[in-house]
Automatic annotation (TrEMBL):
<protein>
    <recommendedName>
        <fullName>alcohol dehydrogenase (NADP(+))</fullName>
        <ecNumber>1.1.1.2</ecNumber>
    </recommendedName>
</protein>
<comment type="similarity">
    <text>Belongs to the aldo/keto reductase family.</text>
</comment>
<dbReference type="InterPro" id="IPR020471">
    <property type="entry name" value="AKR"/>
</dbReference>
<dbReference type="GO" id="GO:0008106">
    <property type="term" value="F:alcohol dehydrogenase (NADP+) activity"/>
</dbReference>
<dbReference type="InterPro" id="IPR018170">
    <property type="entry name" value="Aldo/ket_reductase_CS"/>
</dbReference>
<keyword id="KW-0560">Oxidoreductase</keyword>
<dbReference type="InterPro" id="IPR036812">
    <property type="entry name" value="NAD(P)_OxRdtase_dom_sf"/>
</dbReference>
<feature type="site" description="Lowers pKa of active site Tyr">
    <location>
        <position position="81"/>
    </location>
</feature>
<feature type="binding site">
    <location>
        <position position="114"/>
    </location>
    <ligand>
        <name>substrate</name>
    </ligand>
</feature>
<keyword id="KW-0521">NADP</keyword>
<feature type="domain" description="NADP-dependent oxidoreductase">
    <location>
        <begin position="19"/>
        <end position="296"/>
    </location>
</feature>
<dbReference type="InterPro" id="IPR023210">
    <property type="entry name" value="NADP_OxRdtase_dom"/>
</dbReference>
<feature type="active site" description="Proton donor">
    <location>
        <position position="52"/>
    </location>
</feature>
<dbReference type="Pfam" id="PF00248">
    <property type="entry name" value="Aldo_ket_red"/>
</dbReference>
Amino acid sequence: MAAAGPTAVLSSGKTMPLLGLGTWQSTSEQVINAVKTAIDAGYRHIDTAQVYGNEKDVGQAIKEKIAEGKIKREDVFVTTKLKPNFSRPEHVREAMTQSLADLGLDYVDLYLIHSPINFKYGTDPFTYAGNPEEIYDDVDYIDTWRGMEPLVDEGLAKSIGVSNFNSQQLERLLQNSRIKPAVNQVELHPYLAQQDLVDFCKKNNILLTAFSALGAPARPKVFASGEEEPVLMEDPSVVAIAKKYGKSAAQILLRYHLDRGVSVIPKSVTPSRIQANFDIMDFSLSKEDLASLGQLDRKLRYVGANLFVTHKYYSY
Ligand SMILES: NC(=O)c1ccc[n+]([C@@H]2O[C@H](COP(=O)([O-])OP(=O)(O)OC[C@H]3O[C@@H](n4cnc5c(N)ncnc54)[C@H](OP(=O)(O)O)[C@@H]3O)[C@@H](O)[C@H]2O)c1
C-alpha cells in the first residue's frame, strides 16, 4: 500500500497523516472522484465538514475504495467538523450522529469545533439575509467542548479538536477541559505565518492544520476582503524557490508546512493537481529557504470572517 507520507502522533495518542485532501466547495461528483483519486495517489487523510454538505460523497468514495480492497477503514484518517449552529452542548451529539450517518462510518478520526463563532440552532449564517447579529449564539466554546468530550468516551470520535481558535481561546480551553484539544485547524501560509500561534501550539502539544495553504484562489467573495489581494502561488519568492527545487509553487507552499511540523489539507478536484500536491515527499526546504518564506508574512487572511466581527468570540 502507498505510504501516507509523514505523520504526527496527537495528544490523544492517535497518529495523523500530515498531508490530507481538502474538500470544500466542490460538487458531489467532484468530491467522490477527488477522494478516490487521492486515495489512489497515497493520501490517507481526508478533511470534510458538515457545512460543506459533502459528507455523503466523502463516505461513498471511502466505501468504494474499501470495497475495492485498496484500503481498510483504519488506513484512512477522516476529519469532520461540528456545524456552527449545533454548538450548544445538547446539540453536539445530534450533529455527530448525523455526520456519521452521512459518512457511513462508525467513528471519525477527528471531530473539530468548526469555529468559536456560533449561530442559533436551526439558522444558517451563510444564507441568512438579515443582520447576522440577529442569529448569533454566544454559547461559550467551553460549554460546546463539554458536548465534545463524551464523543471520545463513546468511541464516536477518536480525537477531538478545534478550528479557527486563537491562542487565548486555546489557553482557556486547555485550562477548562478534561480531554485536551488535539488539533487546531486554521488558515496558514507564508502570507499569514502566525508564528506566535505555531509556537503556542507546539508548546502545548496541539497539532496545527493549515487550510487555504495555496491561497484559496476560488474562495467565495463573502470571505474575501474586497481589496485587491496578491496571489500567493504567483509570489516571486515562492516561484524562485520552486524553480530552484524543480517543483511547482504549490508544492513549495505545501512542503513549507511539513517542514514546520504542521499538517496541511490542500483542496483540489483536478486529478493531476491532487497527485502533484502529494508528490512532495522527495525533498525538503533548506533552513534558508524556510527563512525567506518566513519573511513574506503580511498578515493576509484570504478566508476571513469580517462579516461576523462583532461576535463575542470573533477570533482574528
Ligand atoms: N476549518 C475551516 O474553517 C476551513 C476553512 C477553509 C478551508 N478549510 C479546509 O481546507 C481545505 C483547503 O483550503 P481551501 O479549499 O480554502 O483552499 P486551497 O487548498 O488553498 O486552494 C484550493 C484551490 O486551489 C486550486 N489548486 C489546488 N491545487 C493546485 C495546484 N497544484 N496548482 C494550482 N491550483 C491548485 C484548487 O483548484 P481545483 O480544485 O479546481 O483543482 C482550488 O481552487 C478546504 O477544502 C477545507 O477542507 C477549512
